[in-house]
Amino acid sequence: MEKTQNVVSEKLYQAIKSFVKKRVQNDEDVSDLVQEIFLKLHKNEGKIDDLENLVAWLYRVARNQIIDFYRKNGKPVPELPSEDITPTDDDIFREVSSWLEYFIDILSEPDQEILKLTEIKGLTQKEAALHLNISLEAAKARHQRAKRRLRNKLEECCAYTFDFRGKVISYEVKSENTCCD
Questions:
Q1: Per-domain residue ranges for the chain?
Q2: Integer Cα distance of 131 and 174 in angstroms
Q3: How many CB atoms neighbour CB 4 within 10 A?
Q4: Nearest-CA neighbor of 146 among 114, 168, 98?
Q5: Is 2-72 assigned to CATH 2.30.30.50?
Q6: pTM to 2 decimals?
Q7: Under 8 Å between Cβ of 61 and 86
C-alpha cells in the first residue's frame, strides 16, 4: 500500500508541477510555488476525503498560488482556467490524439499499417491480421512492436505524467521540440 501511495504522490506532484510550469517561466519560482502547494496539502492532511477531491483541491490551490505569485510581484495575472481546472481524460485524449497520426506516419510501413488498422480504424488484432494476410500471432507481435516504437517516438518529443490508472494527465515538451504543436 505504501508503494502505491508513493507512486500516486509522485504522479500528483509531477502533474501539479507541470501545471505551474506552464504558467510561471522561472524554474526557481516554479519549485517554490510547488513546495508551497504541497506544504498546504500537508497542513490540511486528513481534511480531504478521497483522491478525486484531493486532485481538484490541489489544482485549486495551485491556481490560487499562481494568482498570488503574480499579484505579489506586481505583474498582471495571466488568464487561468476557471475554478474547475482538473483536466479531464477527454481533454488530454483529444490533445494527444491530434498528434498521433503524425507520429504513426513517421514509423515504418508495417508499423503504420497495423496501428492505423487497430488504433485509428478500430479493428481488432484478429481483423487486422485477416486484412494484412498474416497470422494472428504475427499481428499481435507486430502490434506490440509498433506500439513500443510509437511510444518511443512520443517520448522523444514530450515527457508525460500518468495518473494512477495509467492515463496521461499532463505532458511537457522536451527542450525546443515542436512536435506536439
A1: 2-72, 89-173
A2: 37
A3: 9
A4: 114
A5: no
A6: 0.48
A7: no
